[in-house]
Write a structure and sequence with these properties.
The structure holds 3 protein chains of 3 kinds.
Chain A: H1 8-29, H2 45-51, H3 54-87, H4 92-103, H5 106-119, H6 126-149, H7 154-162, H8 167-195, H9 199-204, H10 212-221, H11 226-258
Helix pairs in contact in A: 1-11, 2-11, 3-6, 3-8, 3-10, 4-6, 6-8, 7-8
Chain B: H1 3-35, E1 40-41, E2 47-48, H2 54-59, H3 62-95, H4 98-109, H5 116-127, H6 132-137, H7 147-171, H8 175-183, H9 188-217, H10 220-224, H11 233-243, H12 247-274
Chain C: H1 11-25, E1 55-60, H2 69-77, E2 81-86, H3 90-98, E3 107-111, H4 112-120, E4 144-145, E5 148-149, E6 155-160, E7 162-167, H5 179-182, E8 192-194, H6 198-208, H7 218-231, E9 237-238, H8 243-249, E10 254-258, E11 271-274, E12 281-289, H9 296-306, H10 309-318, H11 326-329, H12 344-347, E13 351-352, H13 360-371
Parallel strand pairs in C: 1-2, 1-3, 8-9, 8-10, 12-13
Antiparallel strand pairs in C: 3-12, 4-5, 6-12, 7-10, 7-11
Classes of the chains: A mainly alpha, B mainly alpha, C alpha/beta.
């Protein structure tokens, strides 16, 4: 019950919609021609070109550093903020403020941060991109966690306190586990948004330390080659593998725990 | 320790870091930008610190109103389609067995770990005149460089922002509630309308805001998939800041956008708290 | 004069920068050389400065300079380091250079009218010709460009014009006039693109009406707008990034294009370029030195090195751009189909786009009006 069949139509439509261009992108990575738009036969040469491209590799490393660090920062700040907003204030103004970074047009936020770093003479580098990405990441994490908190059973927390648990114990052992799926979804969102963010990164990065989207955007100007598609395909393959391995590991862990 | 003191400490611990972060990195930069709205553009760009209200009177130009209306239309269409696709998807993901649940969820965001611009260009391969869809169907449809292509691109870019909040809201629903409703003789549709939907409304509101807002401000998709044929709020802000280097007017436009978005946020917050 | 502050920094920062400049003006890093005679209006640079203590960061379009340039320049000039960073457009480069990011840049590649705006904002170091003997390699015409007569603040790197790039196998008649894209014939319906950046968007209309590309007259701009609005329903779209790809796939058969970006040397040899009879522009991409640079001697040395015919010809031979360097062009083999054969005299018939100052916003409005139709 509860799974009407017709729901499977939009469900599968979503995945087909999401993966059709990805399929095109992967096929084009094996293109022998120099354009990612016109298929001219099979070749692996762009994977070779990619392996030797220091600029892209450096950009990739920078991007991963920024995405990882900003996600950690955003997840911690965002989760605390969500709990604070739900449990410790009724202010709609603070509510709106917490969501603001997620909904400002990225260019406005980017130029604001650029001017601000300039005025306070904060040096630009990967750290300034991390701080900037954590800003909108935090808003997304807080918003997603909030959707779980609204209905979360605060009676459990009260019971925990009545049984003599301190506020810290209650938060760690009762509140956090209840929020976990929201936190994971929020962190996933923050990571995903950071890894592909261009506008804010462009304006808050040091010119000498570009992230991957910055490298790619400037390459587009002089004609994209299937090298980028090769990179995207490899990133996809790695992500798929990581997810599947992680999945297997949890399964094994669960079976062991049952023994 | 008095309870009042404890509550205040709690508020400080939970709200303090986030609010401080927002004050420094959000409010201060915004205040700087907004202060530019009352100054003039320098001859070659930059700011002349001379008071003027001209930037606001320029906002009232019907030209810009038209641009805002087009953007609202595009963002609304995108949000509606995202909800129609996203709700059932999130609903079914939340009901999957645990193993598949994670895989399905990650599969939603995985395409986004590649690169935005490459994904957008992949759409041009699918949609263009001599492109894949027309070749496969043997047709000559004009699928690209119009508003339909723009909505497709926006939907593609922001669909996960709908699915994830919805998933978080639906996942925590107690299945017993629906069972109880069914046992009381309610049809599946009534159960959905009276139980599931109201309880997941905060997720719906969050998802809609997350999709609507970036669709409203995006400037890459109108240029690539829209063929640069439409002016949107996103392209307008980009042009003012980057091309004509008119920071005061760009800031005034930003202020107008922020006001619209704050109204949206208040509605969203109201829905969340009501739910 | 000082009423106008071009920078986006706060006054305190400007003051600090001014102070730093004053210090730099007294000799900068090589201030030990106190025997230097009376300072002129511009900061004195020391021709004998120890370049091994200077390192350079250069911002340039991707693929616009030879890959091995940093290595070669380091070895040849003895500078500590040369680092290349990239920008995708003039617009984004401007935002970076006028902000804090500019402090990290020594040499920037930007188009002529942007060099003019940067200089007006007081951000550029005047060029010290005595440190760039290779300036004598330039065509005489290349020292008389309207955005910077006498190369006072910029040194030209490449130049060219804007025209119609087309598929000779798919058009029924070769384009000769801007009217061919403004009112495309039936066989080109929805197969034409124009450029999206405002000044180049306006160019075909202004030129076909016989106006200057730098006009600031409202009635002329209004007439241009009428033509552009009338053209819009017949166009495939506006594009100044991927028009070459659109020609290759056959999606478009005629596009407004910069000569260097028109893929005329493509293997299939069916892509050609024409400058319409009504005339066009002359664009120049230049090298400038940031006033905030602490490595100005090395920056001059690098520009001098790039003007070496053996280095400068690379751009003509590899990326098919004409370079304003006579000594370099004399050595270049002009391949079939290439546009390199255009002479400086022919190029100079084009009109340089200059920054219009206050009138620039008229073009932004024009572009918004056309797009919002």
């Amino acid at each position: 019950m509860g799974k009407p069949r017709f729901l499977y139509v939009p469900f599968w439509l979503t995945y087909v919609f999401l993966y059709a261009p990805i399929l095109v992108l992967v096929v084009m990575s094996f293109n022998a021609g120099r354009s990612p738009y016109v298929y001219e036969g099979f070749s692996l040469k762009w994977y070779g070109v990619l392996a030797e491209d220091d600029k892209i590799m450096q950009g990739l490393v920078n991007t991963l550093i920024v995405a990882a660090a900003s996600t950690v920062l955003a997840t911690v700040l965002g989760t605390l903020l969500a709990v604070g907003l739900a449990r410790h204030t009724r202010s709609k103004l603070l509510d709106a403020l917490g969501l603001m970074p997620a909904i400002l047009p990225d260019l406005v936020l980017a130029i604001g941060l650029l001017v601000f770093y300039d005025v306070v003479k904060f040096s630009l580098g990967l750290h300034s991109v991390i701080l900037s990405h954590a800003l909108f990441g935090m808003a997304f994490v807080a918003a997603v966690v909030r959707t779980r908190l609204t209905h979360a059973d605060s009676s459990l927390e009260e019971a925990s306190r009545d049984l003599g648990a301190g506020p810290v114990t209650t938060f760690v052992r009762v509140t956090l586990p209840q929020l976990a799926p929201g936190i994971v979804a929020g962190a996933l969102l923050a990571f995903t948004l950071s890894i592909d963010e261009f506008v804010i990164a462009f304006f808050t990065a040091a010119p000498t330390e570009p992230t991957l989207p910055i490298v790619i955007y400037s390459m587009v100007r002089f004609g994209v080659t299937p090298e980028i598609n090769a990179l995207a395909s490899i990133l996809l393959l790695v992500s798929f593998t990581v997810v599947i391995v992680a999945q297997r590991m949890t399964k094994i862990g669960e079976i062991r725990a049952q023994d | 320790m008095s309870p009042g003191w404890g509550r205040r400490l709690g508020a400080f611990v939970f709200l303090g870091p986030g609010v401080a972060y927002l004050a420094v990195l959000l409010l201060a930069p915004l205040a700087l930008i907004l202060s530019y709205t009352v100054f003039r553009r320098g001859r070659f760009g930059g700011i002349v610190y001379e008071f003027t209200t001209e930037n606001f009177s320029r906002l009232l130009d019907p030209l810009y109103l038209n641009v805002v209306l087009v953007s609202i239309k595009l963002a609304t269409l995108t949000t509606v389609f995202a909800l129609l696709l996203g709700y059932p998807t999130a609903y079914l993901i939340a009901r999957l067995p645990r193993t598949w649940k994670t895989i399905a969820l990650v599969a939603i965001v995985l395409p986004f770990w590649t690169n935005f611009i490459i994904r957008v260009y992949a759409w041009t391969i699918l949609l263009s005149g001599p492109g894949l869809i027309n070749s496969a169907l043997g047709t000559q449809f004009e699928l690209l460089y119009n508003q339909g292509a723009m909505v497709t691109g926006l939907l593609y870019s922001y669909l996960p922002l709908m699915v994830l909040p919805l998933y978080a809201a639906i996942e925590k629903l107690d299945p017993q509630l629906r069972e109880a409703s069914a046992n009381l003789g309610a049809s599946a549709f009534t159960t959905f309308r009276r139980v599931t939907l109201p309880l997941t409304l905060p997720g719906v509101a969050t998802g809609c805001v997350f999709v609507f807002v970036p669709s409203f401000g995006n400037f890459v998709i109108p240029e690539i998939l829209g063929g640069g044929r439409s002016a949107t709020v996103g392209t307008l802000i980009r042009t003012e800041f980057l091309q004509s280097r008119d920071w005061p007017f760009g800031s005034a436009l930003s202020l107008a956008v922020i006001l619209v978005l704050v109204v949206l946020l208040v509605i969203q917050s109201w829905v969340s708290r009501r739910g | 004069m000082s009423r106008i502050r071009y920078t986006r920094r706060f006054p305190a920062v400007v003051a600090a920068a001014g102070l730093a400049l004053a210090v730099a003006a007294c000799g900068g890093e090589s201030s030990t050389d106190s025997a230097n005679p009376a300072p002129s209006a511009a900061a004195q640079l020391n021709a004998k400065a120890d370049l091994s203590k200077q390192s350079l960061t250069v911002t340039v379009w991707p693929g616009y300079t030879p890959k091995e340039l940093p290595e070669k320049a380091k070895a040849k000039l003895g500078v500590a380091d040369v680092k290349i960073v990239e920008h995708d457009t003039n617009e984004t480069a401007m935002t970076k250079l006028t902000g804090q990011g500019g402090a990290q840049i020594d040499v920037a590649f930007v188009s002529g009218q942007y060099a003019q705006a940067l200089a007006a904002a007081g951000l550029l170091e005047p060029i010290h010709p005595e440190l760039i003997p290779n300036l004598s390699n330039l065509y005489p015409e290349a020292t008389q460009l309207s955005y910077d007569k006498g190369n006072k603040i910029s040194v030209p790197y490449t130049w060219g014009t804007t025209g119609i790039c087309y598929r000779s196998d798919l058009v029924k008649a070769e384009p000769t006039s801007w009217k061919d894209i403004l009112t495309p014939p039936a066989w080109a319906e929805k197969k034409v693109t124009m450029m999206t950046t405002e000044r180049w968007l306006a160019l075909p209309a202004l030129k076909s009406l016989g106006y200057s590309v730098n006009t600031d007259k409202d009635e002329e701009i209004a007439k241009a707008k009428e033509l552009l609005v009338a053209a819009k329903p017949h166009l495939l779209g506006y594009d100044d990034v991927t028009f070459g790809e659109k020609l290759r796939t056959g999606e478009a058969i005629m596009v407004e294009a910069w000569d260097g970006w028109c893929p005329t040397t493509d293997e299939k040899k069916n892509i050609k370029f024409a400058v319409p009879k009504e005339g066009s522009d002359l664009w120049v991409d230049t090298m400038v030195i940031m006033k905030s640079s602490k490595n100005k001697e090395a920056a001059h040395a690098l520009i001098n090195y790039i003007l070496d015919p053996e280095i400068h010809r690379w751009a003509a031979e590899n990326i098919n751009y004409k370079v304003p360097n006579k000594a370099a062009m004399d050595k270049v083999q002009v391949a079939e189909g290439s546009l390199l054969g255009t002479s400086p005299a022919e190029l100079l018939q084009g009109e340089s786009i200059i920054d219009l100052g206050e009138a620039a916003t008229k073009y932004t409005r024009l572009s918004t009006e056309v797009k919002a139709q």
